[in-house]
């Protein structure tokens, strides 16, 4: 018969092992999401329509059923993403159920203005992430 102290020790070890397996998976998800975003931005910078389009989620591809329409939409409506000056990754949040994540990207647009792009990524059946939308928020002008 196990003692109470032994049961607590076993339970603590189990919980520690569980936490160790969960935390890296979430970190890996965030890293995978950042890689998708970065690869798409690099494709935009290279005018590689096919590669940029490949990172779009199925819902986006339904709205823009071919690469040309998708590329035109990004070029006209998302200039800071299409031609960023500098960009850096901010905070990320993985959905509790693992179905997707939200990634903040701080971007300097082609005109020098600062933006925050909030990317929504959804997990695909194969475990990869695809971009399901981007919300652009213009940074406030500095106070003088």
Q: Proportion of β residues?
A: 25-35%
CATH topology: Nuclear Transport Factor 2, Chain: A
Number of domains: 1
Shape: globular
How many H/I helices?
A: 5
Number of extended strands: 4
State the helical fraction. 40-55%
The CATH architecture designation is Roll
Which spans of ≥5 residues are poorly predicted at pLDDT below 50? 5-25
The largest pleated sheet is described as: 4 strands, antiparallel
Kindly provide the radius of gyration, computed on alpha-carbon positions and rounded to a whole number of angstroms: 20 Å
- Supply the helix-strand structural class: alpha+beta
Text of the CATH class:
Alpha Beta
User: How do the SSEs run, as a string of H and E?
Assistant: HHHHHEEEE
Q: Overall mean pLDDT score? A: 85
N-C termini distance: 73 Å
Overview of the structural elements:
Mean pLDDT is 85; it is low at 5-25. Helix content is 48%, strand content 26%. A hairpin with a 5-residue loop joins strand 1 (87-94) and strand 2 (100-108). The termini are far apart. The protein has a 4-stranded antiparallel β-sheet with strand order 1-2-3-4. It is built from 5 helices and 4 strands, in the order αααααββββ. It has 144 residues and is α+β, with helices and mostly antiparallel strands. It has a single domain (4-138), classed as Nuclear Transport Factor 2, Chain: A (Roll), CATH 3.10.450.50. The protein has helices spanning 4-45, 49-54, 58-63, 67-77, 79-82; strands spanning 87-94, 100-108, 114-123, 129-138.
Describe the structure concisely for a colleague.
The chain is α+β, with helices and mostly antiparallel strands. The protein is built from 5 helices and 4 strands.
């Amino acid at each position: 018969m196990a003692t109470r102290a032994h049961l607590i020790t076993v339970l603590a070890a189990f919980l520690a092992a569980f936490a160790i397996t969960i935390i890296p998976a979430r970190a890996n998800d965030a890293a995978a999401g950042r890689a998708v975003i970065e690869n798409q931005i690099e494709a935009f910078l290279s005018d590689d329509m096919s590669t940029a389009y490949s990172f779009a989620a199925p819902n986006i591809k339904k709205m823009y059923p071919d690469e040309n329409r998708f590329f035109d939409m990004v070029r006209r409506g998302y200039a800071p993403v299409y031609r960023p000056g500098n960009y850096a990754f901010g905070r990320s949040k993985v959905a509790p159920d693992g179905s997707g994540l939200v990634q903040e990207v701080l971007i300097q647009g082609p005109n020098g203005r600062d933006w925050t792009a909030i990317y929504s990524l959804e997990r695909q059946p194969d475990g990869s992430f695809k971009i399901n939308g981007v919300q652009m928020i213009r940074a406030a002008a500095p106070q003088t």
